[in-house]
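Subgroup meeting minutes
Present: P.N., E.W., G.H.
Scribe: E.W.

1. P.N. recapped why we're keeping a running log of single-chain structure predictions: easier to compare across weeks, and new members can see raw inputs and outputs side by side.
2. G.H. added today's entry (175 aa).
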Amino acid sequence: MNERIEKLRQESLDTQPYISIQRAAFVTEAYKKYGGTVSIPVLRALAFRHLLENKSICIGEGELIVGERGEAPRATPTFPELCCHSLEDLELINNRKKIFFTVNQEVKEIQKEEIIPYWENRSMRSRIFKEMTPEWKDCYTAGIFTEFMEQRAPGHTVADDKIYHKGFSDFIQDI
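Output recorded in log:
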């Protein structure tokens, strides 16, 4: 491993992961501004544009491939349009023993004052849960399964090439 790579690796290992509120704040600003005035796909596009026009860009010294999800290395954004975290969620994330993310007071304040009031009943998770049966909710509470997007944002799974050439009926036929 050369000196540049070793330095970048060590910086990554030494940096404490933390929750960044930047993305959530920019997306919330856009949804408040444009919500109800345009279609949902256009609203999402406007929110994405607002985010890209305003987010901090991190280019670290010695990096040849650049880009971070947040404004700094190990900054982890939240996606309130998918799942609006409660203050209790943030405390849990901050206090976990093994894999934790630091949540500072500013993040908690913005979550409490801006994010939760807007997204608490608008997030995809809350909308899905409103439609679920009591039996489904009992199974969920018991830990039989989880709602996938509570834990991650969509779009990270890459399908192989077959899905583009075959339909689900073809897959069923193959099975």
